[in-house]
Design brief:
The protein has a single domain, classed as Rossmann fold (3-Layer(aba) Sandwich). It contains seven helices and five strands; from the N terminus they run E-H-H-E-H-H-E-H-H-E-H-E. A five-stranded parallel sheet has the order 3-2-1-4-5. The chain is of the alpha/beta class and about 150 residues long. Helix 1 packs across helix 2, helix 1 packs across helix 4 and helix 3 packs antiparallel against helix 6.
Length: about 150
């Protein structure tokens, strides 16, 4: 299953997003493999899409794609806080932590993201690299405009 990151959802919904075309093309490749979305990713996407029409487009996208809801089994907070603390210098959030921990727990999970930290910084508990889908962006840090504050 492919776990979808927030920047992918925002890019697919907002045609003005810098990576909209890339995400749209990648959707054609990744959709048949089965998509999963976590509650923290969906919450972050709603926060980053403040306009009503963008939230409506997100609702339509989720309805059309029918991703599998994927959640960490409770109690997950100790593992999440530990991981967030480990990478505190990179300011990870709850959505990032959930994706990494889910990918660590189940090696069949891959993460669809354009955030470079998933490739270059963050690791599984054993130190190995995460399995990432989605193309590496050519520019140093080319995130969705709404996600730049996280960089």
């Amino acid at each position: 299953m492919i776990l979808v990151d927030t920047n992918v959802l925002v890019a697919l919904v907002d045609e003005r997003d810098a990576i909209h075309r890339l995400a749209s093309r990648d959707l054609e490749r990744h959709y048949p493999l089965g998509l999963g979305v976590t509650s923290p990713v969906l919450a972050e996407a709603l926060f980053l899409l403040p306009k009503r029409y963008l939230r409506q487009r997100l609702a339509l996208l989720v309805d059309r794609l029918r991703p599998t809801p994927v959640e960490l089994e409770p109690p997950w907070w100790a593992e999440v806080f530990s991981w967030v603390d480990r990478y505190a210098d990179h300011e990870p959030d709850l959505a990032d932590a959930h994706l990494v921990i889910l990918a660590t727990r189940d090696p069949r999970h891959k993460i669809w993201t354009y955030d470079r930290e998933f490739r270059d910084v963050w690791r599984k508990a054993d130190g190995s690299a995460l399995s990432i889908v989605g193309r590496r962006l050519r520019e140093r840090r080319r995130k969705s405009p709404r996600l730049r504050s996280k960089a």
